[in-house]
Structure to design on (228 residues):
């Protein structure tokens, strides 16, 4: 049982490049989400999904795209990277969508856009 | 804007002392959760308190919730060097299926001095 797995761990992009951050969970969780963490800002929700085929925007969705074709995977796509997207990205999942369930985090992906 | 704000932003105490962190939030919640983040790692769930609860204990952790003041506190008793980390409160405000959004505060950085 690996939990929530994110790849890559570190990535450097040039402005305008696109890339995909991968996230996979093996706990059969319905709910998955992506956060970004910036100094002094805490974690901010980018996108989330309550099940395969269902996604919705969080607090800071601009510049990011997601899809949920399977229960296990929830990739985050940067369409045209900008320096403002330099951040640490965390994928998270939790069982069910009923309020009160613990959320499980991946180890993070450090992204630098130059 | 952030739903939760932790106070203080940083706290340094001697090993063995108690550490208290506070969290204030803005809107009505279903529950409030506390997470710990070690440097360079993902967040780990510590404890959850529901909106109809006032106090909860888990080992050396004690959490209180005052919904009238929209605030919560996390007390870590008999601190250890391994407690050095950042601590975040998170509020769960979703009430409908497919509307679950966990919103994090900006965190308190706790340093335990051996």
């Amino acid at each position: 049982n690996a939990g929530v797995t994110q790849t890559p761990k570190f990535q450097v992009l040039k402005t305008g490049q696109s890339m995909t951050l991968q996230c996979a969970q093996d706990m059969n969780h319905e709910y998955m989400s992506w956060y970004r963490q910036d100094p002094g800002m805490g974690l901010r929700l980018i996108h989330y999904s309550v099940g395969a085929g269902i996604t919705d925007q969080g607090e800071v969705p601009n510049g990011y795209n997601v899809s949920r074709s399977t229960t296990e995977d929830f990739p985050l796509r940067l369409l045209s990277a900008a320096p403002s997207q330099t951040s640490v990205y965390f994928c998270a999942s939790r069982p069910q969508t009923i309020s009160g369930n613990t959320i499980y985090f991946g180890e993070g992906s450090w992204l630098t856009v130059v | 804007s952030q739903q939760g704000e932790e106070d203080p932003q940083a706290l340094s105490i001697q090993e063995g002392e108690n550490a208290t962190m506070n969290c204030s939030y803005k809107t009505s919640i279903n529950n409030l959760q506390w997470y710990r983040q070690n440097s360079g790692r993902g967040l780990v769930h510590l404890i959850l308190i529901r909106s109809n609860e006032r106090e909860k204990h888990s080992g050396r952790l004690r959490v209180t919730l005052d919904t009238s003041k929209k605030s919560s506190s996390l007390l870590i008793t008999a601190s250890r060097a391994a407690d050095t980390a950042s601590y975040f409160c998170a509020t769960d405000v979703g009430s409908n299926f497919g509307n679950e959004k966990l919103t994090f505060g900006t965190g308190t950085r706790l340093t335990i001095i051996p």
